[in-house]
Amino acid sequence: MAAAPADNIPKREVRLDCGDYLLRTVTADDASERWAGWMSDAKNLRLLNSAPKAMTRHDIVTYIKQFDQRSHLLIGIFEKRGGSQIGFFRLDIDHRLKRCLMFLLIGEQKYRHWSVTDDIRGPFQDYIFDVLGINTILATVLDSNQAMIRYMLKSGWAFDKRADRHIKSHTSDAMLDVCFLSLSHAAWKAWKKNRPAR
């Protein structure tokens, strides 16, 4: 996605209270062997369509340093009680078109349930729309991940299209179908207004 000149965009220091969780800008100090281990987890690899790769803390430091926190934001998800990082969001922002591509990974298996996502999505999506000034959030999901697609559709997202045989699997010779979804600011406001009681 094309980005506006970096020197015209302020760096973002994100810190959002999300109930039992905290979202904040990731720094090199957050790199850990635990995070590196997420990239060897079989379910993560399947959902990401990623090839198995042994990573180290140094690899994670290198990954973190790729983010300018202007057009490319890396935001950690931390458990408040113990302070452990359980995952992260990545945002790639097109400032000219006021849209971003959002990616989420919950790396820790025991936190892969909808209650975590329910806690963090409201504050984070409000931040994206109201603070960053984004009009539309974009996301891609493998068609095989129907649970995530159903969850997003129930949360106000629109199903834009499915691209059949769009990418090659990293674990087999199969070509995988990919679904493209989007959430507009107007759709998010409408969903919040009419959301079912928890």
Structure explained in plain terms:
With 198 residues, the protein is an alpha+beta fold. The protein is built from six helices and eight strands. The protein has an eight-stranded mixed beta sheet with strand order 1-2-3-4-5-6-8-7, with helices on both faces. Strand 5, helix 4 (114-131) and strand 6 (136-142) form a beta-alpha-beta unit. The radius of gyration is 17 Å and the shape is globular. The termini are far apart. The model has no long low-confidence stretch (mean pLDDT 88).
What would a concise description of this structure say?
With 198 residues, this protein is an alpha+beta fold. It has helices at 33-38, 42-48, 57-64, 114-131, 146-154, 185-194; strands spanning 15-18, 21-25, 72-79, 85-94, 99-106, 136-142, 158-168, 175-184.
The largest sheet is: 8 strands, mixed
Strand content: 25-35%
Unreliable sequence segments: none
* SS-based class: alpha+beta
What distance separates the N and C termini? 36 Å
Q: Can you count the beta strands?
A: 8
Order of helices and strands: EEHHHEEEHEHEEH
Physical arrangement of strands within the biggest beta sheet: 1-2-3-4-5-6-8-7
Average pLDDT, all residues: 88
Outline type? globular
- Tally of DSSP helical segments: 6
Helical fraction: 25-40%
Radius of gyration: 17 Å
